[in-house]
Every structure is written in C-alpha cells, then in structure tokens.
Amino acid sequence: MRVFAESGFRGATTRRIAEAAGVNEVTLFRQFKSKTALINEVAELYARRRSEEALPSDPVEPQKELSEWCQAHLALLRNSRDMIRKCMAEVDDMPQMVPCMRRGPDVVHRQLLEYTQKLVRQRGLSLATEDINVACRMLQGSLFADAMGRDIMPDMYLPPRRAGEGYARMFLRMLGANGDADGASDAVERDGHTKAKKGRRSSTGGRKRNGQGRHRPSGT
Of 159, 181, 160, 161, which Cα lies nearest the Cα of 171? Predict the structure, then answer.
C-alpha cells in the first residue's frame, strides 16, 4: 500500500513492490500473477477493514454508535488518503481500477444503509427508500470530503476529535431521528448560553451598584 500511495499504479513497479515486501519478483508473480491482481488484493484488504468496524446490527444508541463509526471511517480514509488520491488521478488512464476502487465505498454504504433502514423502521419515520439512500450518500460524501480536503482547507471542517460526532448529529437530524440524545445535547448547550447571559447580567448589575457604568452629568 505504501508503494502505491507514493508512486501510483504506474510508478509502483513490481520490483519496488517486491523490495518493500521483502520478497523477490518471482515470488510476487506466483502469488498475484499481475500488478492489477495485487491492487485488487489491497482493495479487498480495505473492504475487510471496513467490515471489521461495522455498525451494530440493531440501533440502540444512534448518536454514540454513528459518532464512533464516523470517527473510525474518517481515520481509515485519512490513513489511505495518499493512495486514494493517486488512484483517482490515474483512473482515466487505468479504468480497470474502478471495480477495485469501489469495493471499500460499497461496503461502507451497505453498512450505513442497512443500519439507517432499521433505525427508520424502529422510530416509525415516514421516509422513502430513495430519501434514506440519499441521506446515507450525503453522510458518506461528507466524510470523504473531510478526509481528502482537511489538509488543504482545515478551517472548513470541525476539529478532528469532534468531527465524527458532528456528522452523526446532523445526519440524525436530517432523518428526523435525533430524539432524546440530541435534545439533551441541545438542552445542555441552551443551559450554557443561559448561564452565560445571567453571568453577564449579574456582572453588569454589580458594576451599576458600585457606581460603574452610571451616566454622570457633565461638569460634576
């Protein structure tokens, strides 16, 4: 993966790959037959990693479950960013790479779609299948854009530690499935704003009682 990330499909010669793997080229060809077969195996590895970090079979705590899933997916995308960019840059010249490039994203979409469909049924939400699909694509696209663009436009995104939670929260709001967890989060936020306002009013009142901030006639 490192060699593909550094040099792309064309620049990753079988000799370089063999050297990085610590084997000779003959052994490499016996195992994979071609460089295309090798990149397919890399794509399979990525898909398996995504399967290992799947969402729960049934939604229990959607905000927590989706936040952790988004955060894990962001981390995996960021770690694979260089290779993804190389593959995307070469896809016009190497269209045979498209099927293997789709494997990971397809696994991610199936996981998210199945989980979301169960959540929609569980909450009794009236959403068409197409709308659920679009919502899942939007979340998946947002995660991809974050992972690929954060180093170029860092101010455009939430801080990395809060990104997964933020994407999950807005996804649930979009579905209308935010429920109690989001309400509690909003209540905490509102409470914080209320306390801040009270603090400012109290401070202002204290200054007035001490004679500060009071209008004084000119000449006195």
Answer: 181
Cβ neighbors of 15 (< 8 A, separation 6 or more) are 25
Taking the C-alpha atoms of residue 64 and residue 181, their distance in angstroms, rounded to an integer, is 9
pLDDT digit string (tens) for the chain, length 220 residues: 666 656 666 666 777 777 777 777 777 777 777 767 777 776 677 666 666 667 998 999 999 999 999 999 999 889 888 878 877 887 787 787 777 777 778 888 999 999 999 999 999 999 999 999 999 999 999 999 999 999 999 999 999 999 999 999 999 999 999 865 444 444 444 444 444 455 555 555 555 455 554 444 444 4
Residue 6 in contact with residue 16, Cβ under 8 Å? no
- In whole angstroms, give the CA distance from residue 26 to residue 36: 16
The pTM assigned to this predicted structure is: 0.67
Cβ atoms of 14 and 29 closer than 8 Å: yes
C-alpha span between 131 and 137 (Å, rounded): 10
Alpha helices in 25-97 (DSSP H): 25-32, 35-52, 62-79, 81-90
Q: Whole-angstrom Cα distance, residue 207 to residue 220?
A: 20
Name residue, tokens 């593959």: 87
Name the strand (E) or helix (H) holding 193: helix 179-209
- What's the half-sphere exposure (Cβ side, CA atoms, 13 Å) at 95? 1
